[in-house]
Specification:
By secondary structure, the chain is mainly alpha-helical. It has one domain. It is 71% helix and 0% strand. Helix 2 packs antiparallel against helix 3 (45-71). It is extended and about 50 Å long. The protein starts with 7 loop residues before the first helix and ends in a 7-residue tail after the last helix.
Length: 78
């Protein structure tokens, strides 16, 4: 929401890395990617911008999740 009204960049500049950590950072990356894609491609950017901007983070999450599933066996804790 703050990115939509143009305030979140000021929070990032003031707060530094604390404003770009996982949850808020992911939302910020999505919103910023959408804004840039809309400026470049028009309304098609609403669909493609967020995924393009966060593709690296999504791919890393899938890869690390897969590796964790391969290395560790799930089981019930009794």
């Amino acid at each position: 929401m703050l990115q939509a009204v143009g305030i979140y960049q000021y929070v990032v500049d003031w707060g530094g890395a604390g404003a770009t950590v996982p949850l808020t950072g992911f939302g910020y990356s999505l919103a910023k990617g959408v804004a840039e894609a809309v400026a470049e491609k028009g309304w098609l950017g609403v669909i493609t911008g967020g995924l393009t901007a966060t593709a690296g983070g999504i791919a890393a999450a899938v890869l690390f999740g897969f590796l964790a599933a391969m290395l560790f066996k799930p089981g019930d804790k009794r």
